[in-house]
Specification:
alpha+beta; 4 domains; globular; Pdz3 Domain; 3-stranded antiparallel β-sheet; 4-stranded antiparallel β-sheet
């Protein structure tokens, strides 16, 4: 009704409103298609206040906080982080200080998340690294390409991204990635799974991406540039190019026909509780790599999300600590395999499930 009155009573006012609407539409489009929201710098005192709130929330809420890392060691980690907060930072810069401290708790159910506006932008508009990767023996290899024009880069080793050495990038990500105890597989497994997100959130590397590859077959380096793309665009390419990666739509009934258990760094939480009980009771043979969860239990169950008031960074804190009635494991580790089988990059690319084949071989003996 109001707009009708404007149209009748004042064509000038109507045109002005149309102009405002057009300007607002273009402004919204700029935000929608922009790569990242602009984050304000936050004063050191406010950053330090958020760090103390995070510390207090963890100390009061996390019932397994000192299960793997002694209190004096964690206290030193928090104090060291506090000393880094001497200059204004934006929320992501603060997250990169906080995340390694939280990861020092060595709890795979505890995590640090970006502010809501960053998470939404990462899921919708920010141009992400356009490759899926695998980490094999500390090296990062391309396994999937999500650029519109496929260049057959699968199997190449990534050596640098935007001038940063991959060893440095990987060290940054691993230090900030939570995982149970001192499992040697859980953090590399998680970093590989979230590499394009971690590259933005934790390493601070943005599009365009200048990537140096090593071709192990020729021994030569190649440097190429990629624009990347928003997550929905990458997802569409992935669904079309790699239909084999889609989750099965039909459910199946599983029946245990043997006592061989296959596991790797993605075996976590309830899975590890099950594996620990089998291992302690000598009820199975374990094939693959070290599992990803603590042998003697974990801290999980109900969680709370603490939003820090100044940076709006989130901390996910589990509230219930479990201790399993098992005794045969190694302190601070996960379930170790009886038969260790590692996948090579060629195995991964060719879908050669060497772990499964080894388990079948053992079952036939």
């Amino acid at each position: 009704m109001t707009s009708n009155r404007v149209m009748v009573n004042s064509s000038d006012m109507f045109l002005e409103r149309v102009w405002i609407s057009v300007v607002a539409t273009f402004a919204l489009a700029a935000i929608t298609w922009g790569q990242t929201p602009t984050l304000p710098k936050i004063e050191p005192k406010l950053l330090q206040a958020d760090l103390q709130i995070a510390r207090k929330a963890l100390e009061e809420g996390h019932s397994g906080m000192y299960r793997y890392t002694p209190k004096p060691e964690l206290d030193r980690a928090f104090d060291s982080a506090n000393k880094k907060l001497t200059q204004p930072m934006d929320a992501l810069e603060f997250l990169r200080v906080l995340a390694p401290v939280v990861a020092d708790i060595k709890c795979g159910h505890t995590s640090v998340r970006p502010p809501k506006q960053i998470s939404e932008a990462v899921n919708q508009t920010i141009a992400l690294f356009p490759f899926g990767v695998a980490i094999v023996d500390g090296k990062v290899y391309v396994t999937r390409e999500y650029e519109p024009n496929e260049q057959k880069l699968a199997g190449l080793e990534i050596r640098k991204i935007n001038g940063a050495e991959i060893d440095s990038i990987l060290a940054t990500m691993l230090a900030a990635t939570p995982g149970d105890a001192d499992s040697q597989t859980v953090r590399p497994w998680r970093v590989a799974d979230d590499f394009n997100l971690d590259l933005y959130d934790l390493a601070g590397i943005k599009s365009p991406f200048t990537v140096e590859f090593l071709d192990s077959k020729t021994g030569k380096n190649r440097t190429l540039q990629f624009s990347g793309g928003p997550y929905p665009d990458l997802q569409k390419i992935a669904e079309k190019r790699y239909p084999q990666d889609a989750e099965p739509k039909d459910s199946v009934s599983l029946k245990f026909i043997d006592e061989n258990m296959l596991m790797n760094g993605g075996s976590f939480s309830t899975t590890c509780e099950f594996l620990s009980n089998l291992h302690d009771r000598k009820r199975a043979i374990f094939v693959g790599e070290e599992a990803g969860g603590g042998y003697f239990g974990n801290t999980s169950g109900p969680t709370v999300r603490v939003t820090l008031p100044n940076t709006e960074v989130h901390i996910i804190i589990p509230l219930r600590t479990y201790y399993l009635a098992v005794k045969d494991g190694i302190p601070n580790r996960s379930i170790l395999p009886d038969y260790e089988v590692k996948q090579s990059i060629n195995d991964i690319l060719s879908d050669n499930d060497t772990v499964m084949f080894r388990a079948i071989e053992l079952a036939r003996k």
